[in-house]
Design brief:
Length: 305
């Protein structure tokens, strides 16, 4: 009888935890849907991802197809964004450029997230000596201006999309490491951590199963903001000729090719520039909206002010 009661209590507790998790997710989705800024940012970002994913179906032409008989064709139904000095369709190149920006942003932020979360968690939980060593390394990386560090790393690694992701990941890792470290230092003093320790759970289990899940809200916000920074950084590197090598279409390289004809043919620069602005605006709106949704106290303070 007692075994049956215990099993029933365990089942009820499990159902209660699942129900509580669904309730918190539902509340989060309701708050998110009520935040117009977050929804608008999500729509912008989703649009860019859809364009990048279905670029072959959306683009009119091969982005690298050269047609010297159609050089600098004005805007038309056949070429909505015109053509460049090699007769390549700018619309198709901008559409395919979205792929490069999305890959560079996702790749660099994913690598930086993995390294930053690990380093920040270890630094905040391991003790003062290791904490000091890891944070001084992060400070040294952050001491370099972001774009200059990326340029130096690209000069050492060579121009390729993979190396762009690696260089930007090194640049953004300290952002996540310091953020996670601060959250871990705050969470480790709370009662639920002490209770887990008293129950005999190992340090790694407490860190990765108890503390880190409660540190993810600011990390998600930082990820969206660094995604926007990565798009700008990749475009800057490609504009300088040390990012994605030609003829691969990148928004930065399209701007680089358009710089000599902007005075009499501005469309070559306007559309890739608008694509960068559109993507960065969407990510910034999404990041600000997520910050308000994940931290309702901040939203209340803003409204009361």
């Amino acid at each position: 009888m007692s075994n049956g009661t215990g099993a029933e209590a365990t089942t009820i507790n499990g159902i209660g935890r699942v129900g509580g998790a669904f309730a918190s997710v539902r509340d989060w989705l309701v708050r998110f849907s009520e935040n117009r800024m977050a929804v608008a940012g999500l729509v912008f970002v989703a649009f860019v991802f859809v364009v990048a994913l279905f670029a072959p179906q959306i683009a009119y032409y091969d982005p690298d197809e050269v047609d010297l008989t159609a050089r600098l064709v004005p805007l038309s139904a056949e070429h909505p964004f015109g053509t460049d000095t090699f007769g390549r369709d700018i619309f198709s190149r901008v559409i395919y450029g979205a792929r490069i920006s999305v890959i560079a942003g996702l790749g660099s932020v994913t690598l930086a997230l993995a390294a930053g979360i690990f380093l920040g968690a270890v630094s905040g939980f391991a003790g003062r000596t290791l904490d000091n060593v890891l944070m001084r390394i992060m400070d040294a990386v952050m001491a370099f201006p972001g774009l200059l560090l990326a340029i130096a790393l690209m000069a050492a690694l060579g121009a390729s999309l993979t190396n762009v992701c690696i260089a930007l990941a090194i640049r953004y890792t300290p952002n996540f490491a310091r953020l996670v470290r601060a959250s871990v230092l705050k969470e480790r003093e709370k009662e639920y951590v002490e209770a887990a320790m008293v129950q005999g759970e190992s340090n790694l289990r407490v860190l990765f199963r108890q503390i880190l899940p409660n540190c993810m809200a600011p990390v998600l916000v930082q990820a969206t903001l660094d995604f926007a920074h990565a798009i700008i950084a990749e475009a800057s590197l490609s504009f300088l000729g040390i990012g994605v090598p030609p003829p691969t279409p990148s928004w930065g390289s399209i701007l680089h090719e358009a710089r000599s004809i902007m005075e009499f043919y501005p469309w070559a620069a306007i559309f890739p520039g608008l694509a960068i602005c559109f993507s960065v605006l969407g990510l910034n709106l999404l990041g600000d909206g997520l910050r308000d949704v994940l931290d309702p106290r901040l939203s209340e303070e803003r409204s009361s002010a």
